[in-house]
């Protein structure tokens, strides 16, 4: 197995692709889009690692995103996901191909797998990144200069600052990113790479399979704010769960959905599935109406790419107003009923 790897396998960008219900997760495809840009910047190849069962033809889904090599580990014991065998594959494979960057989704699987792999390889891991870039770094203590490091960018200290984290010496540089943060975009429908089929028995031991999933139940969320074309979002400034009823009425009239900030969710005004932001869902609706939202960094990170942003706030200096296309200064309980009234009137 060792001698089938060529020197060009090393120092590349690798994306761990989650495989569920016969398809690759959206977050993995989003990371392939970003990974292609990082690989181009570094002048290296982009690899995709897929582990599971019934993977025939999966490479045809991945190639269009600019994937140069698909590492495929197919075995019935590898699906559904369990920690030990998947971690064993990554750890052993990464020791052989020595990638300089590994990206994962900040999902239940990524949060479980990433720390275990990074710990075993003695590399760093930054969770919940909102941006990834390539840049240089000078150590202020030693004066040593580093080139082409992965800038792992994320809010820190409760969202009060945006931190740029680098991992100068250890490899791979690892980061997890939430679904929706990166934009999913096909590079070239005709793009072709190559497949490397890996033997699960080479990368795992029988002891890795001691945990067996006998039965599994996954409850699908009935709330889908990610794909809603119109979002009416409320913050802590809405003041109560009853206040959100008015937002639901506006969303119903407009044919949209209702979102919320973390503060509003923590206060019990709305369900967690409606939370927009770094610790919730990243959205890109055609219209985003922000009601009583101040605009903390973590919230803005989850909605700043909306096509049109309308801010309704009684504070003319609210941070969210700086990114809004239209600002309505006033109390939401005065403004929202008028929006409902005039929309109904003009839509007849």
Cα Rg = 23 Å
Estimated share of beta-strand residues: 25-35%
Would you tell me the structural class of the helices and strands? Answer: alpha/beta
Shape: globular
Descriptive account of the structure:
This protein is an alpha/beta fold. It has helices spanning 26-42, 59-62, 83-97, 108-121, 200-203, 241-254, 262-266, 297-300, 332-346, and strands at residues 13-17, 19-20, 23-24, 46-52, 69-74, 101-105, 125-129, 131-138, 145-156, 161-165, 173-177, 194-198, 230-234, 257-260, 287-291, 308-313, 326-329. The strands form 4 sheets. A 7-stranded parallel sheet has the order 7-11-6-1-4-5-12, with helices on both faces. A hairpin with a 4-residue loop joins strand 9 and strand 10 (161-165). The protein is globular and about 65 Å long. It starts with 12 loop residues before the first strand and ends with a helix.
List keywords for this structure.
alpha/beta; seven-stranded parallel sheet; 17 strands; five-stranded parallel sheet; 348 residues; 9 helices; globular
């Amino acid at each position: 197995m060792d001698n089938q790897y060529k020197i060009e396998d090393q120092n590349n960008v690798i994306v761990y692709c989650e495989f569920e219900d016969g398809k690759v997760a959206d977050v993995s495809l989003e990371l392939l889009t970003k990974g292609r840009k990082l690989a181009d910047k570094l002048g290296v190849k982009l690899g995709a690692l897929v582990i599971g069962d019934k993977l025939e033809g999966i490479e045809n889904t991945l190639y269009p995103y600019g994937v140069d090599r698909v590492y495929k580990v197919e075995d019935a014991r590898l699906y559904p996901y369990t920690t030990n065998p998947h971690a064993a594959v990554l750890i052993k494979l990464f020791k052989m191909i020595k990638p300089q960057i590994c990206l994962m989704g900040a999902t239940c699987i990524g949060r479980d797998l990433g720390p275990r792999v990074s710990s075993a390889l003695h590399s760093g891991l930054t969770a919940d990144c909102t941006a990834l870039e390539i840049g240089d770094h000078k150590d202020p203590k030693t004066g040593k200069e580093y080139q082409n490091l992965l800038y792992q960018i994320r809010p820190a200290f409760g969202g009060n600052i945006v931190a740029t984290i680098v991992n100068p010496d250890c490899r791979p540089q690892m980061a997890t990113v939430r679904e929706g943060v990166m934009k999913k975009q096909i590079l070239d429908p005709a793009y072709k790479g190559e497949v490397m089929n890996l033997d699960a028995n080479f990368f795992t031991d029988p002891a890795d399979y001691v945990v067996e999933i006998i039965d599994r139940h996954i409850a699908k969320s009935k709330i889908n704010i990610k794909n809603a074309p119109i979002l009416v979002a409320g913050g802590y400034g809405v003041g109560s769960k009853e206040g959100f009823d008015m937002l639901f009425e506006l969303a119903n009239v407009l044919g949209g959905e209702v979102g919320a900030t973390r503060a509003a969710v923590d206060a019990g005004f709305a369900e967690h599935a409606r939370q927009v932001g770094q610790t919730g869902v990243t959205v890109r609706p055609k219209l985003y109406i922000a009601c009583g939202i101040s605009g903390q960094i973590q919230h803005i990170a989850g909605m700043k790419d909306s096509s049109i942003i309308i801010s309704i706030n009684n504070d003319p200096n609210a941070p969210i107003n700086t990114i809004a296309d239209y600002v309505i200064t006033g109390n939401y309980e005065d403004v929202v009923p008028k929006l409902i009234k005039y929309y109904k009137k003009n839509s007849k």
